[in-house]
Design goal:
2 strands
Length: 163
């Protein structure tokens, strides 16, 4: 009886600990990834990303949080980084690679997750854009690297992450 109770408590702790951190990768059933139509490599490489206009509305962010069962930026899975930033509603296929501002391309990602977090994915997105624009990677391949598990692409370009 005691052994069964111990196993049950261990299982409850494991489930709780896994669900209290934002997901490293999105659920592809909820976030399959969507690209903006008509964005070629030439166009992607000519846009000054960050200076362009974003079209993710507060309502879209609410929809994404709800789809993933999050209460919002204060959800316990949105772990804060050293600067207090919790989660971002991130693009699976980054805007720098022609990702659309569409709820099917968005998911909540923690800034303070360990070892994987939004800061690392942002770093990879910038690198993939540079690789595409330098002609070392096709736009299609770069997008697939994000959809198929961005962590593998991160390791390919930067090596293993401590944690």
């Amino acid at each position: 009886m005691m052994l069964r109770l111990s196993r049950l408590l261990s299982l409850v702790f494991l489930v709780y600990s896994v669900t209290t951190i934002a997901d490293d990768i999105p659920d592809l059933a909820k976030t399959p990834g969507v690209t903006r139509l008509g964005l070629t490599k030439t166009k992607v490489c000519s846009i000054k990303w960050g200076a362009d206009e974003r079209h993710v509305t507060p309502n879209m962010k609410k929809q994404v949080f709800a789809a993933y069962g999050y209460s919002g930026y204060d959800d316990p899975r949105c772990t804060a980084d050293a600067h207090g930033k919790t989660c971002e509603i991130d693009h699976l296929i980054s805007r720098e690679l022609g990702g659309a501002d569409d709820v099917n391309n968005l998911w909540p990602q923690a800034y303070g997750g360990t070892p994987w977090n939004a800061h690392l994915k942002d770093k990879l997105e910038n690198r993939l854009n540079k690789e595409v624009c330098a002609g070392r990677l096709s736009l299609k391949t770069a997008r697939q690297m994000l959809v198929n598990d961005w962590r593998n692409a991160y390791v390919q370009y930067y090596g293993k992450v401590a944690g």
